[in-house]
Prior knowledge:
single chain; alpha/beta; Rossmann fold; 5 helices; 10 strands; globular; binds guanosine-5',3'-tetraphosphate
Amino acid sequence: xxxxxxxxxxxxxxxxxxxxxxxxxxxxxxxxxxxxxxxxxxxxxxxxxxxxxxxxxxxxxxxxxxxxxxxxxxxxxxxxxxxxxxxxxxxxxxxxxxxxxxxxxxxxxxxxxxxxxxxxxxxxxxxxxxxxxxxxxxxxxxxxxxxxxxxxxxxxxxxxxxxxxxxxxxxxxxxxxxxxxxxxxxxxxxxxxxxxxxxxxxxx
Length: 204
Ligand code: G4P
């Protein structure tokens, strides 16, 4: 709890550091894609992730989440750090059902506009309990289809969505407006309103 209160006082600094890393180490690719594999998607800056997790915990601890839910693979590290700070379990939605476990699953189909494919998103019924307050955290908010898929799993389980935490939101894509309709708090750390090879503009 002491760490959470401390993080609340540092949230602005954490956001400023994330933005600095995006500007310094990110690369804007054609098609509105931001490459951040040197600190978020492949090589991971764990100190930054620890701070990001603490900032999410500071924002959402008053909603008393019972679990943090994310989607494999790139959501796992920031969501895991938030779960650690909140001292609750991390639960991971899978894009491919495990062939090892024969667990009963909640499942939903998700369209990926970026990749032009669809996949079955699933989570074990054993880990998403009816009545649980769920904080959903992911690395990117783009089209919002992955997050909406996770929210459908929460609904299927009879659990409730406490809030949504996003590391990088692209406000020029329609994800936010789709999630706003859920009527739950959304907290994005870095919000990009436009980007090109010439630079990145932050949304207010
Ligand atoms: P959505 O997740 O918001 O619905 O959008 P979409 O289906 O278009 O996203 C497909 C994948 O691309 C997701 O990861 C999403 O996190 C990622 N993504 C979207 N925009 C960007 C971007 O600008 N930069 C980067 N680096 N990733 C982006 P995924 O396919 O599920 O893969 P992963 O989580 O295993 O990395």
